[in-house]
Amino acid sequence: GFFYSATLIAAICISSFAQYYFGIVNSLLLSADQKGYIQYTAQIITIVLNTIACAVLIYLGCSIQIVKLTTSLVFLLKPLYLVLYVKKHYSIDKSIKYTEEPIKQKWNGMAQHFAAYVLSGTDSIVLTLFSTLANVSIYSVYHLAIAGVKNALLSMTNGFQSLIGEMLAKKETEKLKNFFGYVEWFLHTGTTLVFGCTGVLLVSFVKVYTNGIDDADYIQPLFAILITIANAGHCLRLPYNIMILAAGHYKQTQSNYIIAMVLNIVISIATVKLWGLIGVAIGTLIAMFYQTVWMAWYDSKNIINWPFKTFLKQCGVDAITVIIASLATFKIPLLSVSYHAWFIQAIEVFAIWCVIVLIINLIFYKDKLSAAFAKISGKLKRA
User: What are the pLDDT digits (tens) for 40-95?
Assistant: First the structure.
């Protein structure tokens, strides 16, 4: 009914409205000042509080509107806290009037963000319009797991952009190259490890998650592999995208985002009738492949003069790692359809992948691996 849907939408929207209306400006300020830990700490606290509140309300049998309203009110605490923190620690004069455009490429930036948003949402829209609701349901389950993995990796990149932007502004070329080399290796290695394990474990997870549900065939191994590789591509492009954003090259790179968006839409629509889920996964995969290679090439030629062969070497190492580790782990069985059995399988797979990733990086990137261990050990000693 209308009232049921309207009240549910209103309950869900409260925290989102607050976040974007007066929370996101303060978040950007803290990130630019390399104080992202302030907002991340607030986020952790609100997530814990929300989990507790939701568990209690669901146990008491409250309606979904009450549960979601409580969630919105709990998450409202984060933007309110950021407002108070910024007001206390920063002297911001809002009466100052600017004499020229402060964000000269803002419309190009908006076009990029719009294209990126469409690119990320194309699959579900195409499936809804041109395929069956069963396929939409299957896609949603796989996307649930993939989105969690991707967001975990994305959270690791917070702070990189502001650091790179600072180095660019100060023209610290050598320092920037060294730092970018480390960021590129770190994100490629992390993406390979995390998404490699995801590719091996995803079907098993879906089998456990959908146990007892027979409205559709949720076991789709080929789709699982393709959608995992496509989203891994999204994360592999992060170091090059961060560099573009930090340099403010919105206008120069706008065409790349638009072409990737068009590629995804056209290929997905052209293949969805023929191959269903596989078709939209192929569309996303091709779009991400194009965007990643283009961004790496653009950075090497126009921003950092980073050798393109370094990117190709890193991709080669990633491919070797995936092939060897996948062959070593894809036959590890799920002993029973339960979360306990899946957790045991996940530990075995992750342990083997870690060992293989470590060995391969000792061969190809011993200097970066040593630097990473030195940083970790240094932080542990200080703690």
Answer: 888 889 989 999 999 999 999 998 889 988 988 898 888 899 999 999 999 888 88
Which secondary structure element, helix H or strand E, spans residue 357, and what is its range?
Answer: helix 339-364
pTM of the predicted model, to two decimals? 0.84
Kindly write down the DSSP assignment for every residue of 105-152, as one continuous string. Answer: THHHHHHHHHHHHHHHHHHHHHHHHHS-HHHHHHHHHHHHHHHHHHHH
Q: Are 176 and 235 in contact (CB under 8 A)?
A: no
Residue length of the chain? 383
pLDDT tens track for 320-359 = 999 999 999 999 999 999 999 999 999 999 999 999 999 9
**Alpha-helix residue ranges (DSSP H) falling in 276-307:** 277-302
Helix (H) or strand (E) holding 41: helix 36-59
Which residues contact residue 281 at a Cβ distance below 8 angstroms, ignoring those fewer than 6 apart? 123, 223, 226, 227, 230
- For residues 207 and 143, give the distance between their C-alpha atoms in angstroms, rounded to a whole number: 14
